[in-house]
Amino acid sequence: MTTADARTPASKRNARNVPEARNAPENEAGKSIGWHKGYVQGSRPDLQVPVRQVHLTNGKDVTLYDTSGPYTDPATETDVRRGLAPLRENWIIARGDTEEYEGRPARPEDDGLKHTSPRGGLRNLDAVFPGRPRRPRRSRDGRPVTQLAYARRGEITPEMEYVAIRENVAPEVVREEIAAGRAVLPANVNHPEIEPMIIGKRFLVKVNANIGNSAVTSSIEEEVDKMTWATRWGADTVMDLSTGRNIHTTREWVLRNSPVPIGTVPLYQALEKVDGRAEELTWEVYKDTVIEQAEQGVDYMTVHAGVRLPYVPLTARRKTGIVSRGGSIMAAWCLAHHKESFLYEHFEELCEILASYDVTYSLGDGLRPGSIADANDEAQFAELRTLGELNSVAKRFGVQTMIEGPGHVPMHKIKENIDLQQEICEEAPFYTLGPLTTDVAPAYDHITSGIGAAMIAWWGTAMLCYVTPKEHLGLPNRDDVKTGVITYKIAAHAADLAKGHPGAQDWDDALSDARFEFRWEDQFNLALDPDTAREFHDETLPAEPAKTAHFCSMCGPKFCSMKISHDIRREHGEDQAAIEAGMREKSAEFAASGNRVYLPLAD
Amino acid sequence: MTTADARTPASKRNARNVPEARNAPENEAGKSIGWHKGYVQGSRPDLQVPVRQVHLTNGKDVTLYDTSGPYTDPATETDVRRGLAPLRENWIIARGDTEEYEGRPARPEDDGLKHTSPRGGLRNLDAVFPGRPRRPRRSRDGRPVTQLAYARRGEITPEMEYVAIRENVAPEVVREEIAAGRAVLPANVNHPEIEPMIIGKRFLVKVNANIGNSAVTSSIEEEVDKMTWATRWGADTVMDLSTGRNIHTTREWVLRNSPVPIGTVPLYQALEKVDGRAEELTWEVYKDTVIEQAEQGVDYMTVHAGVRLPYVPLTARRKTGIVSRGGSIMAAWCLAHHKESFLYEHFEELCEILASYDVTYSLGDGLRPGSIADANDEAQFAELRTLGELNSVAKRFGVQTMIEGPGHVPMHKIKENIDLQQEICEEAPFYTLGPLTTDVAPAYDHITSGIGAAMIAWWGTAMLCYVTPKEHLGLPNRDDVKTGVITYKIAAHAADLAKGHPGAQDWDDALSDARFEFRWEDQFNLALDPDTAREFHDETLPAEPAKTAHFCSMCGPKFCSMKISHDIRREHGEDQAAIEAGMREKSAEFAASGNRVYLPLAD
Question: Which GO terms describe its molecular function (chains A, B) (predicted)?
Answer without folding.
Answer: phosphomethylpyrimidine synthase activity
